[in-house]
Amino acid sequence: MSDYAISAVGKLAPVEPVPHSHEMPEPAELRALFHKESQAARRKAARPGLYIAVIIYLLFAFADILLVPDVAFYTIAARLVVGVTALVTLETLLRVEAPTQWLDVTCAGAIIFGYVGWLIPTAMSSNQESVAYYMVFGTIFMMSANLFFTFRFRFSVATSTIILLILYTVNYFIPSTTTYKLVFGAFYISCFIFTTYINFKLNRERYNVFLNALEARNQHREATERGRALLRLSRTDPLTELENRRAIDERLRELWNGWRQHGTAFAVLLVDVDFFKRFNDHYGHQEGDRCLTKVADRVRRIAEEHRASIGRYGGEEFIILSPLYSPEHVASLSQEICRAVEGLGIIHDERRDGTQLVTVSVGATYTRSEAGTKLERVIQEADSALYLAKASGRNCARLFDPNDPQSSDESENIAAVLRIAIERGLVSLVFQPIVSLRSGKVEAMEALMRLSMPDGTSVPPSMFIPAAERTGMILELGQWAIRTACLQLASNEHIRTISVNVSPVQLKAPGFAASVAAALGDAGVPGNRLAFEITEGLEMEMHSDVLRCISDLKLLGIKIWLDDFGTGFAGLSWLRLIDFDVVKIDRSFLHDCLTPRGKAMFQDIVGLLRNRGPKILVEGVESEEQMELLRIRGIDLAQGFYVGRPARADSFGSLLSAPKRRAAAGCPN
Ligand code: C2E
Ligand code: MG
Ligand code: MG
Fold this sequence. Notes:
Alpha-Beta Plaits, TIM Barrel, 8-stranded mixed barrel, binds ligand C2E, binds magnesium ion
């Protein structure tokens, strides 16, 4: 069998060498083993063998009466004494569980004494002719010693030699012719030689059978051990030595069945290493592997303390299946994991969110009576809790909240609707104007996506955009949004620019810039009329793929805007990395301007951006006061309900004229 096996992750991995317990021992050891093992067979054969022998021996009493009637009394008496003594001795030895050699000695003794007990009185018979014939039967005793009983070779040779010697002694004294003595003696010798030879062959054959059986047993054991090793390998993650996804999926299924059948509740925790890709990119894959191993070891210890199982669920994601004692227990277990990983103190100074250590986010859920009938649902719940933990700034744990509409069944429905949204026309774009505070003119329109369910109810983007990002549907929807925006630009010369919100998932997708180029080309619109809004925050790790994509987009002439500035951690470092054309200050800063502290904060942010180059846009303008504030601060662009609400493309006419008036004259919306 090959020493390699296909591992669960699809690569060839060496199979642990099976300890060579199957190697054949030395010949002396083998013989000892053979004799040890043959003892059991000999013990088993002793009783039926001796009983049959004794019965046949006793039956020969009839031959005694026929052939040597004058001494028959003695021969029969001898037969009875020897037969009964032998059987009684054997039974006693068996009862006291005496060693096997004593059983052999008893059988051999029965043969020798049986022979002597018959031979001596027979030889004394006066019917010498019959004696001469009858003596031939003496060979039967020799045959029994060599062939009938399964003695060890040397022992049976010794027994048959004694028989031979007795015969020779009797033969010497018996009154018969020299010819008879010679012929009879030669016959006995040849009988001795033949039976000894056959006995030798038989014993060798038994030994060979034993060797073959031993070999077969060893092979079987080796195959079983190797099978076990392969099974272990196919269920183990080679890096962390935790159970792999296949194994943990099985375990999950078992727990799920237990829950369905007996109501044994359990919790599922997804543990994801924060900013791991960045760690890998910066410190290299070896260091990345080392980090994962350390995290896995630490989390495993905690899982074991809580009698939970743990597995590696994906690249940097682990899963814990824990018996559920209470939701509080799950929450504290999740917290313990976060703190423990942070406590490992693995440096990660590339994450740029203020923390410089490797941390994990944990999303947890547990089986509840209303949790639905699908196992996948449990994982989805844990997944959305994990998403929430990431969204809450990472290095924290979130327990799935069944009452949160974002994570309810609704979210599953949404995910399903998203799959058919484009072909069924359930998705649409509305446009919100962005005005220049200096000129009062509409500088751009922000395209905002809308989704309605098949029953007509509309779903807020805060619900369906995360669902689309989680399921990957954002790629298709985003592409659709870009194409639709391009068509709008093509059909409406008055709109200078449309800004489209672009998810980090899209920026990471290979070929995104090319697909945008194709959309522009198909609509016949120059790239500089399109802007992409990127939101700092969730999922956005500014790795090289994203930076390359952004520079490709810039080559197409597309403007890159930073959306919701100030809400995430990464904003400032992004400003260093990317040359944004517009930075949108999140509306919360404007709304906080009611307090002096909030006002100061807003001013600081504006100050920070002012000298860096990008135009400053403030979103969420809802009143004339706010508008005035922006003017005073010298903000470039404004967007908000006061300027204009998001509206369908067919109302572009009013959108394009109304904001101008409002921005200049300050009319309320
Ligand atoms: P965003 O890009 O920051 O969009 C601005 C959001 O603020 C919009 O919410 C808009 O309706 C709302 N808004 C505009 N003016 C005001 C105002 O004066 N006051 C208040 N309170 N809100 C105002 P909406 O349409 O619900 O979109 C929410 C978020 O969903 C967007 O935030 C954006 O991040 C995301 N989104 C919308 N459409 C798309 C899309 O096509 N693709 C992607 N990836 N994300 C989108
Ligand atoms: Mg936006
Ligand atoms: Mg925004």
